[in-house]
Design a protein that fits this description.
CATH class: Alpha Beta
Strand content: 25-35%
Strand order of the largest sheet: 3-2-1-4-5-10-9
Structural class: alpha/beta
CATH superfamily: Vaccinia Virus protein VP39
Order of helices and strands: HHEHEHEEHEEEEHEE
């Protein structure tokens, strides 16, 4: 997942920000999850706004993030609002301790595009393992058509690190399809924003 200290500082510098549910979470719920229930794993949950959103939609949420500072701020919001959502500090690249077929849904918004190719493939394999049969996998990542693709030091194909040590893996549609072996892809769409950002939204179901 890269520079631990960098992530801690980024979250410290943004206290009070990024505490609102995202458009992607609303899109996923409105179009794919409205009639679903069960256990939902939020990978790269950040400060937990989407986890809280899904909690209030009656999912049993487990939230995971690489940054202890992000989880600290998430838990502060939980205490403030008298909530209890399981939250864990975890490096996804180290694998998961969850049992096979533990979750009905795995969700991630901009949490899966900071890993090397080797670690990305490991994480996707783990996601398939912990998902139930016909479980949903919904994720958003930065696309390889994003404005920052190609900027900074090249770590490996489609992965670049800026001068501060912040590394990102930009995901192409073909690469996403390769990663999703064993899944049925229900929806895949690339969004290009006027400011130069580009996102890949994917909804898949485990076969």
């Amino acid at each position: 997942m890269g520079n631990k200290e960098l992530w801690e500082q980024r979250h410290k510098n943004s206290i009070g920000r990024y505490n609102r549910v995202t458009d992607f979470a609303r899109f996923c719920y409105d179009n794919f999850l409205k009639n679903k229930k069960g256990k939902l794993l939020d990978l790269g949950c950040g400060k937990g706004s989407d986890s809280i959103f899904f909690h209030f939609k009656d999912f049993a949420v487990t939230a995971v993030d690489y940054s202890s500072e992000a989880i600290k701020q998430f838990n502060f919001q939980q205490n403030k609002n008298n909530l209890f959502i399981t939250s864990l500090v975890k490096d996804m690249a180290e694998g998961f301790s969850f049992e096979d077929s533990s979750f009905d849904i795995v969700y991630s918004r901009l949490g899966l595009d900071y890993l090397t190719d080797e670690d990305t493939k490991k994480v996707f394999s783990e996601i398939k393992r912990i998902l139930k049969s016909e479980g949903y996998f919904l994720f958003q990542v930065k696309s390889n058509n994003d404005q920052k693709h190609g900027q900074g030091k090249e770590i490996e194909k489609d992965m670049y690190e800026d001068e501060d040590g912040y590394a990102r893996h930009f995901i192409s549609q073909d690469y996403a399809k390769e990663l999703l072996d064993g899944f049925e892809i229900i929806f895949m769409d690339e969004k290009k924003i006027a400011n130069g950002n580009a996102y890949l939204d994917v909804i898949a179901k485990k076969k």
